[in-house]
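In the design runs reported in the main text, the only information available to the sequence generator was the tokenized backbone. The following block is the verbatim input for one such run; it is reproduced so that readers can re-run the procedure and compare outputs position by position.
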């Protein structure tokens, strides 16, 4: 309980010149079971006291006690919402060392989490004052700087940046990762942008950091020399020893790299701040692994109304902190993704990409003026694939990283096809102004049904009002699930079986093994084994496509089955 000093503002009080004189935080608390709800104001005052100048008991007020300064510098509780146990706290700017993030967090995110009076507390947002914003380095490159580094022309500046993190998360050797990087960067028209380490791939006995950095950067430089297209390798140098991180950053620079990836939560604020100041040549890609142990809240109070289930700091707050510390790109969560998302990914995106963000009551956000701090790339990731490109871009805009791991590497026709699908979807949405569904209901439908729409996280893939599914290597239960979903949605269901003359199939696979241009490098024998173990005969397929015969009649029959409403001139080739 706050004692000795008054930490509650009178009704209607608002901080004057908040962006100059105050740092403001939006809190919500959940009172402990033994605390009377009428004590909410006392609990709010205790939060302000414990996070600024107060303590639990009365102390000396003599001439050398510092009590006058403590009273002048105390935090003030205002905008109290007793119905929802919410309030704001205004902290005088001079209460904090302007360029010390750790020192700041030791107050408002410090001991208050251990107070007996509360069993739940969430810091929804922080609005930083100009003095603190300008004291931190901010991004070295930011959105415009990274585009300059990659030498983007006017057309490229309209496109999101696409990339892949190798899957499985860990398992490839350094040599194998370099091979994959080459395949990704050379697929399609060669415009795929980046390759990224996974967050838990550091330096393992089968994939040493030094080996991986040298080999992948060597591939990067070779491809750039041949194509003239600059690439990014997001090389994970995270370590609990800062000296090791600094040495790894030096190696990245020595081997021609442009970017260091940091697990920013796991390594800590001091590490991020130091790496930014010591390595101004390198782009910083921030992975937020471990954030959910800090940010996740499963109670109804996550939206302000209802109870909290624990103690947390919002990802919105962390995003602001990392923009100040100087990261150039940051994972934000994304729509249609696999991770928990409170719907705040869009608000985080605004905090990262705008010069001034207005308060948003929906997310209890306070807004932010950035006073010239460069903009940060929001990174959409987690369970994404080319089929949701339009959804992601509608939320994030064009200035974003779109990271697809399994969504590219898991393409049934191989890695190269996965990259091509991603590039096609990007062109369709940005250049042609189409949604993915609109794109696949044009003359591109048959092509995209094999390159993009067949591979999605969902089992049923809608192309306008047509659901297309390849029966060749599908299990019966998947087909039945797809048919049932199509029935419920009123979509047309088309099941296609692809066959091929075995001699031709073997010849093609042998050629791919020889040239190492496809995932079929496992060879024809493996193909037979997979076919025997996975394929389940499904005789009710609506169409059988013989891929050993590329005749126009067959394509026309398939076109009429899928797109009877299109004119004859819209024939497509698979």
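Verbatim output:
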């Amino acid at each position: 309980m706050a004692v000795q000093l008054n930490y509650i503002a009178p009704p209607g009080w608002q901080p004057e010149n908040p962006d100059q004189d105050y740092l403001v935080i939006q809190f919500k608390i959940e009172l402990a079971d033994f605390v009377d709800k009428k004590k909410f104001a006392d609990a709010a005052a205790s939060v302000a006291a414990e996070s600024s100048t107060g303590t639990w008991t009365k102390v000396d007020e003599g001439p050398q006690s510092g009590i006058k300064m403590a009273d002048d510098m105390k935090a003030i509780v205002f905008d109290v919402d007793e119905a929802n146990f919410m309030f704001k706290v205004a902290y005088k700017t001079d209460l904090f060392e302007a360029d010390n993030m750790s020192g700041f967090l030791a107050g408002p995110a410090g001991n208050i989490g251990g107070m007996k009076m509360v069993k739940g507390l969430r810091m929804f947002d922080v609005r930083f004052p100009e003095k603190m914003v300008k004291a931190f380095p901010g991004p070295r490159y930011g959105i415009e700087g990274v585009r300059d580094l990659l030498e983007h022309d006017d057309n490229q500046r309209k496109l999101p940046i696409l990339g892949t993190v190798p899957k499985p998360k860990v398992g490839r050797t350094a040599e194998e990762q370099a091979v994959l990087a080459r395949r990704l960067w050379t697929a399609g028209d060669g415009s795929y942008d980046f390759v990224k380490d996974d967050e838990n791939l550091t330096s393992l006995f089968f994939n040493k950091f030094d080996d991986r950095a040298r080999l992948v950067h060597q591939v990067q430089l070779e491809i750039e020399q041949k194509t003239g297209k600059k690439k990014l390798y997001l090389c994970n140098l995270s370590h609990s020893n800062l000296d090791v991180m600094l040495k790894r950053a030096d190696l990245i620079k020595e081997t021609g790299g442009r970017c260091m990836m940091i697990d920013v939560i796991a390594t800590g604020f001091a590490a991020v701040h130091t790496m930014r100041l010591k390595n101004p040549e390198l782009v910083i890609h921030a992975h937020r692994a471990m954030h959910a142990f800090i940010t996740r809240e499963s109670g109804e109070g996550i939206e302000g109304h209802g109870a909290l289930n624990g103690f947390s700091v919002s990802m919105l707050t962390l995003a602001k902190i990392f923009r100040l510390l100087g990261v150039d790109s940051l994972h934000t969560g994304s729509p249609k993704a696999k991770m928990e998302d409170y719907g705040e990914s869009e608000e985080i995106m605004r905090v990262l990409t705008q010069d001034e963000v207005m308060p948003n009551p929906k997310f209890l956000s306070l807004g932010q003026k950035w006073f010239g701090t460069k903009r940060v790339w929001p990174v959409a990731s987690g369970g994404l694939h080319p089929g949701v490109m339009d959804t992601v871009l509608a939320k994030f805009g064009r200035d974003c990283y779109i990271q697809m791991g399994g969504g590219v590497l898991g393409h049934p026709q191989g890695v190269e096809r996965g990259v091509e699908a991603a590039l096609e979807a990007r062109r369709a949405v940005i250049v042609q102004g189409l949604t993915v569904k609109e794109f696949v209901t044009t003359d591109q439908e048959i092509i995209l049904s094999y390159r993009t729409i067949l591979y999605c996280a969902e089992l049923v893939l809608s192309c306008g009002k047509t659901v297309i599914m390849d029966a060749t290597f599908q299990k019966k239960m998947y087909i039945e699930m797809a048919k049932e979903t199509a029935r419920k949605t009123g979509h047309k269901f088309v099941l296609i079986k692809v066959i091929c003359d075995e001699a031709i199939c073997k010849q093609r696979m042998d050629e791919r093994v020889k040239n190492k241009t496809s995932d079929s490098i496992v060879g024809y024998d493996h193909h037979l084994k997979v076919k025997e173990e996975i394929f389940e005969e499904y005789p009710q397929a609506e169409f059988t496509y013989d891929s050993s015969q590329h005749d126009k009649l067959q394509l026309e029959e398939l076109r009429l089955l899928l797109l009877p409403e299109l004119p004859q001139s819209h024939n497509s080739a698979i």
